[in-house]
Amino acid sequence: MEFKTAERKRAKLRLGITGPSGAGKTYSALLVANGMAPWSSIAVIDSENGSAELYAQLGDYSVLTLTPPYDPDKYIAAIKLAEQKGFEVIIVDSLSHCWSGEGGILDQQGKATDSKFKGNSWAAWREYTPKHNALVETMLKSSCHIIATLRSKVEYAQVVENGKTTIKKLGTSAIQREGIEYEFTTVFDLSIEHIATPSKDRTGIFDGQYFKPDISTGNKLLSWLNCDNNSISKAEVTPLPPPEAEEVPDIFTSNTIELLNAYQIVSAEAKIKGKQTFVKLVLLQKDTHILAWSACADILEVPVGTFITASIVQKNGTNIIEAYSIVKGGEAA
C-alpha cells in the first residue's frame, strides 16, 4: 500500500442524459455519440419501443431492441454483445426501464415482497439490489463509451408564500435508483426546449453552460477523455460546480452591477434554501443563454418562452433578477 502522484489517463465516457418525454434524449445521445465515433461504430440498446430507429436517416448505426421483461441481465448481455462486436459507443436508451419498467428491479422486488418474502421488503431488496449493482458495474467496467438516457419526472412541493400555501414545481429527477448520477462522468439535464443543463461535469468543459447537445459536444468529450497526462493545464480546467448545499447563491451581497434588458425565459426551476424559495432561470438573449436567480417565486407562473424585461444585478459574479415585467405586444406590461 502506497501513495503515488496523480496522473491524467485516457478514459471511457460515462454520460447520463435525463429529461421528460419530448426533450430529445435519444436524438441528443446519437449526435454526441457521432462526435466520438463513426455511425457504424455506434450501438443502441433500445427499450423505448423502437424510438432509436426513428433517426435512421442520420447514419448507419446499429440497434438492438429489448422487450419486456426489462431484467437487468438483458442489459448486461446486450452491453457485452456490443463489446464483442467491436462497437466504440453504446447508447442505453433508456436506463429507466430496467428500474421501473415491466420486469424491472422495482417490479421484481415488489412481486418477491408479496410472495417469496411474505411482505418483508427489506429481505427482497437484499436479493434484488445485487442485480442492479451488477448492471452498474458492467457499465462502469465496459471497454466502450457508455451514454445512458434516463426518463425524468416532475416533482412538486407545498410552499408557503405570504401565509398562503401553494403548489410549486421544484424540478425533475431521473427515474432510476437514487444516487445513479454518481456513476456518471457527466450528466446533462434536458429541458422540453432541448436545452442541456450540466448537473454534473467532472470534465469541467460544460460547467455553467446551457446548450443544445450536438456532434461538437461529443468532439469535446472525446478530446478530454483521450488527453495525455500533461495536455490540460490547471489554468485551462474549469472549476467543478459548487457543492449542492451552496447551489442557491447569497443574494444579499455587495458589489452589484445593474443591467436592464429583454430576455426570453428558456426554463425556470424552484430551489429551496432554508424556508426561502428561489428560482433558477435560464434566459435567452439573442443567441446567448444566461443563468440568473430570482427571489420572486411568482416568476415560476410565467410560461416558458415568454419575453420579459428584467432588472438584473450582478452580485459576486451571480446574475440576480430584482424586478421583471412581461412583454406583451412588444411593450412591457
From TrEMBL:
It holds the Pfam family AAA_24. It comes from the Bacteria. SUPFAM superfamilies: P-loop containing nucleoside triphosphate hydrolases. Residues 11-194 form the AAA+ ATPase domain. This is AAA+ ATPase domain-containing protein. It comes from Sporomusa sphaeroides DSM 2875.
